């Protein structure tokens, strides 16, 4: 018998003010899988992630967490099953960084011992490279530092959830958008480790090169539908890049790998050519 996916979206359809945002979309994610979701601006990626997280109820279709519909799960149970790092979450209050990360832990890990809590928070701070900022007021951080704190908060929640639930997921919306190059790589390495530890990971990423380097699967969303779903070498193709992103190759080679390197020196947008 096949294992129940950690997350399953079945024929999810979502409309806002009469406009279709997500159209009959089905997707499954299993334990240990790292799935990158990509696509043009406005394609529906954030909407898809919020629906998957159980934050938004779709107009039609079902969202299943470990086989149970999301809306049937009490909040604490859903929080133990999946941690979410949203796109540009505002932290509008003065709080030490360690306490913000602690909030991630406390929602789920109320029964944990103080020692376990302290160690989980320390591990999350380390993994996001914000340990040195633990005592800083979060409202004084740079954009990239704040993004790494939110990543640490999600990791702390995920670890707290391990006491309640084996089959968990980490959902990330553009987690590297504000990060410098080295932190993009270290965050993606941390994400990969989380997946290798058996957690199902779904990350919205615009950087197809990083997505191809770290994800097992790339799901390309276009106009609220899945335009491609498979391993990087099957999804990041010239045909997909032309069809979904409207870019075409302008040099003879695009890197020496099975997956083309998607960088401005190799590609162009014909309509914008001078
Ligand atoms: N509450 C809303 N009311 C009206 N339109 C909305 C609402 N939420 C999302 N949309 C629209 O739905 C579409 C999909 O939005 P979404 O944020 O999911 O896109 P995205 O793929 O994450 O885009 P980006 O890459 O720019 O972050 C967009 O056209 C957006 O304007």
UniProtKB/TrEMBL annotation:
It comes from Methyloraptor flagellatus. Belongs to the ABC transporter superfamily. It comes from the Bacteria. Keywords: ATP-binding, Nucleotide-binding, Translocase, Transport. Residues 7-248 form the ABC transporter domain. Pfam families: ABC_tran (PF00005). NCBIfam families: PRK13548.1. This is Heme ABC transporter ATP-binding protein. GO terms for molecular function: ATP binding; ATP hydrolysis activity.
